[in-house]
Amino acid sequence: MSSFEDQVAAAIAAHGQWKSRLRTAIASGKSEFSAETVAKDNACAVGAWLYGDGRRDFANEATFTAIRDLHAEFHREAASVLLLALTGKKEAAEAAIALGSAFGKTSANLVSALARARAQHAA
Description:
Radius of gyration: 15 Å
């Protein structure tokens, strides 16, 4: 696998872990992360890559921009869910992470965009 493919695979895996982290936070009302930290799209490894060397790795600027924007949206949605969980709004947090929610749609769109970028890069 190329470095780009490794980065994309790591990005998909890392963002997949967030649903589990958010479910844990909803159940417990606690998290090692604050909503403010989660909202920052450049504070995670994927964000560091996207705002660093990642731009040069993408096949085209439009793909890069779309993924960077989806990644930022993903962080905003995750932070919103986490805030609900940490403030005891369990039912609202569960609804905010449910299938068809803004979080779910953004997460799916991000993973799809990353997979398309990986395919473009391999072509």
